[in-house]
Queue: 2 jobs
Job 1
Amino acid sequence: MNLKKLIRDVPDFPKAGIIFKDITPLLINPKGFKSAINQMAKMNWKLSPIHKIVAMESRGFIFGAALALKLGAGFVPVRKKGKLPYKTIREEYQLEYGTDILEMHEDAIVKDENVLIVDDVLATGGTAKAVCSLIEKLGGHVAGLCFLIELSFLNPQEKLKGYEISSLIKY
Ligand code: AMP
């Protein structure tokens, strides 16, 4: 199944110059969504079993939760500052202009668990790198990073050297 056909380019969203990769045509297509999750579930990672799936808000939750059920892994949400109710650990990361903060519950991962990171789009890799740091702060091992879409022209692999990355669709 050609998943690329189910991704819609929306120019100048959320601001001028950005071509937003809209995944909603894939999500409303039952065969497309199922195929994406099945392909993610078939990937082989250097560490197994996968104990936890960590996904970042908000579109990462859609793929991460479905994949966690399929792999029999726990699901861990990573959220922007101030959204999680319990005690958190945090990581500041660089944006195009300024910085932002991501948080995860401090009991979300137990030392030596194997963790897979899932998101819809890998762009510069800044977000994913911050999530790797959160997992490692709690003693987890990053088994790999799994994306629906990778914007290879932004060279995110450079920022994530040493980590195993798999993406279903590349631009
Ligand atoms: P980055 O930290 O640059 O890798 O950005 C990754 C996050 O921003 C992901 O959670 C994506 O959902 C979102 N993102 C970045 N660029 C795009 C884009 N062109 N289309 C859709 N989402 C994007």
Job 2
Amino acid sequence: MRLHLPDRAALDLDRAVIVGILNLTPDSFSDGGAYGDADGAVGAAMSMVEQGADAIDIGGESTRPGAQRIDADEQCRRVIPVIERLAGETDVSLSVDTTRSVVAERALDAGAVMVNDVSAGRDDTDVFRVAADRGAALVLMHMLGEPATMQDDPQYGDVVTEVRDFLMRRVEAAGAAGVRQEQIVIDPGIGFGKTTAHNLVLLRHLDVFVATGQAVMLGASRKRFIGQITGQDDPAQRAVGTAATTVLGVMAGVQMFRVHDVGMNREAADVVTAVREAQGK
Ligand code: HH2
């Protein structure tokens, strides 16, 4: 399976795609303010490439629970110079993590090939038009409510079915706006309007998302539910727990993993893939 990108490029989804996270935000829950300036950010991204990242997801707005919204101009100021420089230094795929069409468009101009929209096109439906016009890949994620309030007592009847059905409705809406089906990735949105119990049930049923036939992304990296299970309060200490979710995902057929700790997740995914592909007597 391949994820089509602009200019006839494609990402091979038969081997797990590791997407390194580059948050250019002062307030992200795990790596907020970690890179200082553009030089630091480019260096961090290049180190992820060396560790085996296939793509880098670059964001200028935190979506952690309770986060403040950042306007499009400020997001552009944060992400565009870094995308421009990375496009000149590496050929791994660059993704922009934004819900705003203006930011998506400028990021695609600067060299990005994928738009990661955690609102699945609900914040700004023009994101669909921009992705369609430019032939960009598009990640559609499930979120219940909004970052400011999403963790205030989220409720579902059947979380797996509801999240899947929502995502398929958004795939349909993106398709109606002209985005090609084979360019759309769905993501259950671990931690976005979900309790730990909801996250665990979603992780247990990742096969349901894979069975839709869309490419699937998992974003469990360093999230709070891992800390609740392992007792690790510091997000940086949740890499092993994250790698466990990558193993589960590869076993279920998930193709893309959005992670902070690239090397560890690359290795975990590669070992599981090798076992899955093992043949012989
Ligand atoms: N999670 C976060 C941000 N963007 N995109 C997708 N597709 N899936 C995710 O699970 C996802 C996402 C939140 O994590 P992070 O970027 O580390 O933190 P913050 O939002 O605080 O910057």
